[in-house]
Every structure is written in C-alpha cells, then in structure tokens.
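We include the entry.

. . .
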Amino acid sequence: MKALLACIAYFALGISAAIASGYGDFNSGVAAANRDDADNTIKYLTLAIAESDLPAHLLPDAHVTRGIAYDSQRKYDAAIADYSAAIALRPTYTRAYLERCGTHGLKKEYDAAIADCSAAIRLQPEDWRLYAMRIDQYLAAKRYDDALADYALFIAKRPDDIDLKAARADILRQSGRMSEAIASATALRDASPKYVSPHLELGLIYFANNDLQKSLDSFSAVADIAKKDPTALIFRGQAEWALGKFDDAESSFEDALDLDELQPYSFLWLEITRARRSHKQSSRIAARFAATDLTLWPGPLILLYLNKSTPAEAMTARATAADSGSAYRCLTDFFVGEWYEQQGNNGEARRLLQEASGTVCDDDWRTQKFAAIDLARLP
C-alpha cells in the first residue's frame, strides 16, 4: 500500500511553492499516508479534493488514498464512497476496484466484493494477485466451487506449484469434501515428501476430520522438515495437547520458544499445558515476556497468565483490539476459559469454552475444536 502512495507522490514533486494550495494539501495528505497518519491523511486530502486548483488527474488518487485511511479507521461507508468516486472519475482504475472489493468484504457484502474483484480482473486479467483476492471473497461467502475454479486457472498456469495444489486441497477441506481433500493432499505428499505444505495440509485436514493421531503424524513430519520454524513446533504441540500427550506438548512448546524467545502463542500454549502437569511457570520465561511491550494482541492474554491483569481486563482488551473479529473473541474465550480451569473455577471455564466451541467461532475453526476437545475433558 505504501508503494502505491509513494508512486502517487511523484505527481506533485517539483511543483513550485507558488502554485495554489491544492498541490500542497495533496502532498501533505500523501506524506501523512506514508506515515500511517490516518487523521492527517483525511484532513489534508479532504482539503485538496475541495480545492478547485487540484488537477483532475490527481482527484482519483486523492479519493483512493483517503479511502484507505478511512478503512484503517473502520469507516467503511466513507471508504466505499471514496473508491466509488475514484471509479466514477477513472473507470479503469484497478486499484480502486480492488480496495472497494476488500472493504465490501469487511462489511460481509460478498456479492458486491466479488463483483468489484471481478471488475479488477477484467482490467488486468494476467495479474494473479487479483484472482487471489477474489478467492478470499469466494471463501468468505462459502462459494467453494467458484474458488476451486479460480485455483484451476492458477494451477493450469503453474502446474508444478506444490503450494497452489495444497491450497486447493484446503478448499476441499473447507467445503466438507474430506475424502477428496485427503486424497488430494496425500497424493501431493507422496509426490513431494520433503516439501512442507502437503504435510501441513494433511495435518489440518485430519484434525478437521477428528483423526487426531494422523494429524499429529503429519505435523510431526512438518516439524522434522522445518526444523528451525517455531510454528511447526506449535502445530505439533497443539496436536499432542489435543491427544492428551501433555508431556510431549510441553516439550514442543518449549522447543518453539527456544527458536523464538518471544513467540506469544508458544508461551500461551506452554502455560495451559504446564498446568495439566502441575508444573510451575518458568520464572525465566515469564520475566522475558514481562519485559516486553504487551499492549498489542495477544499481549493482554499474556498479561493474564503473568498474573498482571484480570479476565475482565482481557475481555475489555479484546473488544478494543485492532481487529475485533471472531478470531479475537474465540481466542480470548478459549484462553480465559483455560485460565479459569487452572484456578479451579470449572463453571466459568465451561461457560467460556462453550462460547469458544460454538458456531460464532466457525471462522476460527481450530480454536473452536480445541475448545470442544477440552470442554469434553471437564468434570
């Protein structure tokens, strides 16, 4: 996005200071956008758009740049109005269609989002990034066959791309076509046994299909291949946790923290696993996290496990997080529920784990399943 703004900025470079204020306000607005200063972006570009001396060829760029700033403030209707104004002024403005596609998607207006992404594709049919964004909207709208059709185009262009084929298997999983998903990912794994994505995809598919041991086997293969990737160890540890292999899980999360000392989810999963084994919190690891800035997500959850905040404060932080979508809600319900379980408050643990395992968490299906697994373990 900054590359776009930097590109826009050249229009006004070298303009004499004697030229009227439209250029000056446009330049100030773009400069503010490059600083991620949404308030001043909106302020100066609003002035520029209203000024009669701003050249017509800059107006679409001013609207798109201001729309991006409105998006960052979740003022989605204002953003859409700006993108629409840019399109009216420049009907071939691919970026405006693409930005409006994304904003409609944030509002869950998927038909409008898909129409805009499709318009962008018609303007630049060889740009595969546009298809990728349309696929995101198809998946959000649960239009799996349309997403698979776009992936067929990708794979036809790049028949040797293993990651694309693994992503196609994931769409089969999302659509509930588990046998097809397993067959597709298994064939890909067998053809490329040293490649990460087929093993990772098989692990996810087996987990979704409640075959926890095969899920663990696949994630263990990922960890064996990607030896320096802490995320691979987190996946393995989560599968071990789901199977009740808490000693193995504890080792996996500790190993992940050895690779990345401040990996927040390694810490959180380590804490809920240690509690199952009645192991005390590591003062060394706790001090390391306590010395960092924990204002950003999932910092509020880490503060809870460091005994530096309360469940109520974690819930409040969730509501004001940069993205207050279902993922934040589900993760908060899950980890706060686990915290209550550690305190022996099974009533609150059950309530929150029921929330995290409910349909509101369909978009965060892995947390949903972890919550369901542990809910079944409660007395």
